[in-house]
Design brief:
single chain; 342 residues; alpha/beta; Rossmann fold; 2 domains; 6-stranded parallel sheet; 12 strands; globular; disordered C terminus
């Protein structure tokens, strides 16, 4: 195996959770060249992994929103770059029209995609001349690793290796290195995933009373207003300035704890080995959650967001990991923190 192309186009959390596939391939085929095709919005994150030789990107999302001529020209140029190499194998682990088109345009002997019943969009099937096996009974992230390993005939190590190397920030981020930072990722792209502001306030006060400095990131003006509203409920909490993704990653790396909704930056916190609690309200925890006993935990479920007591119990289950006390299970932890500060 000399050259491999991974196709995973979006979004932030999916891109982060695909990084272990690179490490798996690198172990199985040490001398292979590994390229990755993705939306330009997420290309830099892929470049944080030194196991990727070349990132092929185009502003697909940006063009869809703005229909800008320059973006269209960039897409055209990216097609030429994509076809400049011939791949031994192309693995489309996205499974929708846009990823299938990329896989089809790329020059490759074998183009792997999911079985029809496992595709995100069934019309994507036109692009493949080989298929992964039936989707394994596991979460989405391990499922990608199993699919590629089975198709290409190798075994992988159970513990995922994200192999992230953050570039240095281009400005002073003023991160307080002498504090126990807890970042609360309250923002999410879909309102249905949100957790009530008063709940965030209770969690923030509980953490602050235990010596954590609360940091509230945001990305849009609306999210900034929400962060300010939560900060008003938590004495001493700071609303961060607007950060790029890599700047936010540096804040995450400096944090002791991250609590947040099912969003890409919380997946990044898990990948960066931070103590992480991920909250689910509108998507499947079993399918899209993160888990590393004693360090990362996912709670809640589609249509059934967790209450404050369960979130506090989950925080204790990951922050207790530094002691000799065994971590409690995400969904069976007894809500020990009933006396919430109000």
């Amino acid at each position: 195996m000399k050259r491999i192309l991974i196709v995973k186009v979006t979004s932030l959390g999916d891109i982060v959770e695909t990084l272990p596939v690179v490490s798996d391939l690198r172990r199985a085929f040490p001398s292979a060249k590994i390229d990755w095709a993705a939306d330009a919005a997420f290309a830099d994150i892929i470049r944080w992994n030194p196991g990727v030789d070349r990132v092929l990107s185009a502003p697909l999302r940006k063009f869809k929103k703005a229909r800008n001529w320059n973006d269209l020209k960039e897409i055209g140029a990216s097609i030429g770059e994509l076809r400049a190499e011939k791949y031994d194998v192309i693995v489309d682990i996205h499974g929708v029209y846009k990823s299938a088109i990329i896989a089809f345009i790329a020059r490759g002997r074998r183009r792997y995609g999911y079985l029809n019943k496992d595709l995100g969009e069934r019309g994507a099937a036109f692009a493949y001349n080989a298929r992964f096996g039936p989707r394994p009974l596991t979460d989405a992230w391990r499922g990608m690793r199993v699919s590629v390993a089975d198709a290409l005939g190798y075994r992988f190590e159970d513990t995922p290796d994200y192999n992230i190397r953050l570039p240095a920030p281009t400005r002073d981020l003023n991160i307080p290195r002498d504090r126990r930072i807890a970042m609360l990722f309250h923002a999410t792209s879909a309102d249905v995933k949100k957790w009530p502001q008063e709940h965030w306030g209770e969690v923030g006060r509980w953490l602050a009373a235990r010596g954590h400095s609360i940091a509230l990131p945001w990305g849009t003006e609306r999210e900034q207003a929400e962060a300010q509203a939560i900060a008003a409920l938590v004495p001493g909490a700071i609303v961060l300035p607007k950060l790029s993704v890599v700047e936010c990653a540096h804040w995450i790396e400096a944090s002791e704890l991250v609590v947040g909704t099912d969003t890409g930056l919380v997946h990044l916190a898990h990948a960066l080995q931070r103590r992480t609690v991920m909250l689910f309200a509108a998507t499947s925890r079993e399918h899209f959650g993160v888990s590393d006993p004693g360090r990362s935990i996912s709670i809640g479920e589609e249509g059934a967001p967790p209450d404050v007591a369960r979130v506090l119990a989950a925080i204790e289950s990951v922050t207790d990991a530094s002691s000799n006390t065994p971590a409690r299970s995400a969904e069976t932890a007894v809500p020990v923190a009933k006396g919430v500060i109000s």
